Amino acid sequence: MAGHSKFKNIMHRKGAQDKKRSAMFSKLSREITVAAKLGMPDPDMNPRLRAAVNAAKAQSMPKDNIQRAIDKASKGEGDNYEEVRYEGYGPGGVALIVEALTDNRNRTATNIRTAFSRSGGNLGASGAVSHGFERMGLIEYGAKAGDEDKVLEAAIEAGADDVESDEEGHEIWTGIDSLHEVARALEPALGEAEAVKLAWKPNLTTEVDEDNAATLMKLIDTLDDDDDVQTVWGNYEIPDAVMEKLG
């Protein structure tokens, strides 16, 4: 699986911690508010908002919290967040794309640059690594949605481009323009997705050895702990044996 999948699995294990859960809810709320401000405050009329609400529900975020985030946008309340993307290289030459929502670009850039430098990596200019990724739509389902054959058949019927499955669940890839159309088409067969979003899919992956993997995971943890960072994408491939040693 691509780097982002490994990252997702690690975050699932850490997600039981109350502090992590609170931070996750904060980030989900921020995305909901931004999505509602950019379009209609009705999830049925706003694909990005619908995806944000579904992501929040998948993480068991209380309905009151979700509605409060939407109401903030409707009333013009809350901070005005700007979408910013950072690109750089981490340990072992791994390419990383960091997506953030920030109300202070200087603060966010400084924090991310510091995180990269402390891990022996370096932050590059816009476009430094994104040429090695493809911008695509990503629909995520847990393992309970069905086995690989069932999901593959549903994905083909819905018009998806590719499917990647493992014991954790399923990732269904689509073109950007067809993301929400495919997501809706999957629901009768698989139910509501855990996540529907735009993603960065690496064209090629880089295998990371044990020494670099530990430092890389520390860097990703640091980035994820930053309140402004929404998602970290990477082209890393960490062997299962190394992942087990990292715990």
What does this structure look like?
This protein is of the alpha+beta class. It has a domain at 3-74: Integrase, N-terminal zinc-binding domain (Arc Repressor Mutant, subunit A, Orthogonal Bundle), CATH 1.10.10.200. Helix content is 47%, strand content 23%. The protein is built from 9 helices and 10 strands. The chain has helices at residues 3-14, 18-38, 47-58, 63-74, 105-118, 148-158, 179-190, 210-225, 240-246, and strands at residues 82-89, 95-102, 122-124, 133-142, 162-166, 169-174, 195-202, 206-207, 229-234, 236-237. The chain has a 4-stranded antiparallel beta sheet with strand order 3-1-2-9. α2 packs parallel to α4 (63-74) and α6 crosses α7. The longest helix has 21 residues, at 18-38.
